[in-house]
Amino acid sequence: MAAVIPQTEPFIREAVQANQALLTPNEGGVSLRTRMQCLVYAPFKAVVQMKKKGRALTRGPFLIVLDGLDECDNKDEVQELINGMLMFFNENPLIPLRVFITSRVEEHIKSRLDVPAVMLDNLVDHCSDDDIATFLQILFEDACSRNLVVRTYVQKHREWPNRSDKRKLVEHIGGSFIFASAVFKFIMATNAEGGHAPTPMDRLPLALKMNPGLDGLYTQTLSRSMHLPHFSNIISTIALLQEPLPISGIAELLGIETYEVVNVLVNLQAIIQVPGTDDIPVTLCHTSLRDFLTTQSRSGDFFAHPSHHVRIYLLCLEHGLKVLREDPSLFIDSGKRISAVTDYDLDYSILHMEFGRGCFEPTEYDSAIHLCRERLAIQPDDPRLITTLAVAVHRRADQTESVTGLEEAISLYRGALELRPSPHPNRSYSLNNLGSALLDRHRRIESIADLEEAISLHREALELEPSSHLDRLVALENLLIPLQLMYGKSQTLSYLQEAIAHCEDLLAFHYSVGHRSRVERLRSLASLLQLRFDATGQEEDLSKISMVEEEANRLSAPSIEPIP
């Protein structure tokens, strides 16, 4: 400060001469608040009060920049610094001094900044694609002037990257300066670092595809934190969550401290958007990171194994039981605020069970069922809790081939359905659950009554779903199977006609060209048409079969790319 405002120098010198401990804070026992008051605030205020308005003081308010305040290990000192700062400005509201702080707004900081004198802003909210484009333009112009390979290429081919590639890069980057910098460094890596793509021009298409072009970047970045406690749990959880959770939510779910999550993530900001506060969701800079983490051949030690779905599922159940024990009326009182993790548990825990279905040990199903029963005992009339228990019992019955367990699941599904009368928004979900369980029981005991009821339930579920809704696809798929089985049992043509119509709907409205399930469904339609031809002898079915099979064969044929 003395260098910028020379008039403050005698006041700073006087303060140090009066108290030498100001220069040895670790030994003198002088608080940070006192040091700031004696060495910064008081000298600045003295100059202002003396009205020695030299040239330095005529340029408007002065600005002190504190960068990375959250990186200070001593949280007590950070709070002390902020408290002293706020006290000074409260006592001197007109002083021409401002403080600009860049930091994650962690709880120990946020608790001190929630006052009118402080303006909080999230820089992510102010980042635009135009800013990213300008940033990349400057980086590439500088690189072109320094890199002989790029300069030689530009002399022959003119602009590099071209406008189209720049636009694609901006779209891929998604508003993150850190990610933009990381992508640029990947493109401009040295020949030795570039691997099989020896020049920046070769690496640009890989960066545009993002998969697997940035695997090296992902591996290198993740390695920075892999030695830290809870790294694997945190990264696998972020990769497998169906909806992003905030830092506080991830910590709450995993049963660890918020700072432990932050400790892992701060090194990964090139590939993960780490929010400025603990209550904003943690997101990936690009979806290709999730693809990387969930593909073992690419991610290796960083692989988010499907068994982690089981862990997330059980953690959700444990958390739900904990909050219900603390407040048994939590889900009943609609006015009560539900935490992000509790909300996530209610919406997505069953999905984690389904995704981890092949990884469950029998004891894990037992633990899940025990937790579900305890939750349901606290709130016995909540259809969400009934359904969660029903699905757990159903999946264990599938694993153990227990008819008794399946019958309990059917009974529970019926209970949940009764609590969701029409027009309940989740009635179709309960209809599909019960229909699927009845279909499973039919496969074991071959009860026609189960098959008939399953068809009736799935038909009702289909009627409840709008034609454009994704859940309609699920309802159509669920109905196709029992219709085909019923035709096989009864040879009643109406069941086959209905199955064909629904299969055609799937192809027309849900499995468009390019969808990974289109070929499979085309072959299913061909089989159904063949059954109808066998039953009716309609010649037009033969031409339809030929067209459908031709498309299926064309779409499933391997593509052969020319060798350069």
TrEMBL record:
<dbReference type="InterPro" id="IPR011990">
    <property type="entry name" value="TPR-like_helical_dom_sf"/>
</dbReference>
<dbReference type="Pfam" id="PF24883">
    <property type="entry name" value="NPHP3_N"/>
</dbReference>
<dbReference type="InterPro" id="IPR056884">
    <property type="entry name" value="NPHP3-like_N"/>
</dbReference>
<feature type="domain" description="Nephrocystin 3-like N-terminal">
    <location>
        <begin position="58"/>
        <end position="104"/>
    </location>
</feature>
<protein>
    <recommendedName>
        <fullName>Nephrocystin 3-like N-terminal domain-containing protein</fullName>
    </recommendedName>
</protein>
<dbReference type="Pfam" id="PF13374">
    <property type="entry name" value="TPR_10"/>
</dbReference>
<keyword id="KW-0677">Repeat</keyword>
